[in-house]
Amino acid sequence: MKLTQRMLGALVSVLALACVLPAGPALAEDAEAPMYRLYNSYTGEHFYTGDSSELSFLVREGWRYEGVGWNAPASSETPVFRLYNPFAGDHHYTTSAGERDHLESVGWRYEGVGWYSDDEERVPLYRQYNPNAQVGTHNYTASRQEDDFLVSEGWMAEGVAWYACSEGATASAANDAPIMAPTFSSVGSMVACYHASGHDYPADVLGRYGASSIEEFCQILVEEAQSEGVSGDVVFAQAMHETGYLSFTGAVTPDMCNFAGLGANSSVPGSGNRFGSVREGLLAQVQHLKAYASTEPLNNPCVDQRFGYVKRGCAPFVSELSGRWAGADYGGKVLALLNNLYRY
Q: pLDDT tens digits, the chain, 344 residues: what are they?
């Protein structure tokens, strides 16, 4: 197969990973440590780390964040060793010192202890092997369903690789969240979160612009977020923060269909960009988030009137919107609403 320039770039990023980043995460002295899972769609490799800086670096490089794979103990008697193949651009993880030493002897680079296995053996992490792949040959998951599915697709089951304290979640915003990520929450979860806020949906206005109910609003939001690869969870949380759960008590009015305060001056009522429909307004918000979080081109015609004013890729994580999109505490406020959404 002939590699495209984009695929070659992804491989270079993988090969550079071991040189740019520290050898494994420094885990805090907490009972459990979240282990983040990422995927490189160009090489097929899943990657696992407990280091949020490493997570941020990889998201910037184009890896897709897939949430928390599992929660590991901060320490135990059973370390999980991390190794890197500089020739193939692949990582491997094992609790076996013998396997570690063998891989080192044939050219793999030992990168230290990646994390620890739970000595109480509460949640098994299953290991699968793809005999037809050269990169991403192994997958590790706490999901029995994922293990069974991969085996049904031709992967070889290799048993339990190590143990977790508890299963992870498809998304976690405890400390931060990437903007370019899948939408983990369902429309129903967003609707439940909205109803729990106690606000009344402005159907009399937004109904004229294409969303007569909160259900329709959230459905459109998810569709537009997915169209650009932006997390619908982040879009929802930001829109609820900016509009006060669609109460529009600031400068923007509901008939403007501006759900992110684009171009608005808080001291000037009615200021800000106007959009012709709920869908267009949400797409503009999504595109503005993509401008901050990614250097990838838009998938849709640009409707964000302020897209060109953003330094592309300067804020791939929600926390990094602070001092850029708005004030110094802006990212924290959006994250608080995002964590609230993940309760539903």
A: 333 333 334 444 444 444 444 444 444 444 678 888 888 878 888 899 988 778 767 876 777 777 788 989 999 999 999 999 998 888 999 999 999 999 999 999 999 999 999 999 999 999 999 998 888 889 999 988 889 999 999 999 999 999 999 887 554 455 678 898 878 788 999 999 999 999 999 999 999 999 999 999 999 999 999 999 999 999 999 999 999 999 998 889 999 999 999 998 877 887 889 999 999 999 999 999 999 999 889 999 999 999 999 999 999 889 899 999 999 999 999 999 998 888 78
What are the residue boundaries of the structural domains of the chain, listed by start?
Answer: 5-169, 187-341
* Cα 169 from Cα 335, distance rounded (Å): 16
Q: Say if strands 79-85 and 109-116 run parallel, antiparallel, or are unpaired.
A: antiparallel
Domain 187-341 matching CATH 3.30.470.20: the answer reads no
Contact 262, 268 (CB under 8 A): no
Exposure string (b/e) for 57-84, b if CB count within 10 Å is 16 or more?
A: bbbbbbbbbbbbbbbbbeebeebbbbbb
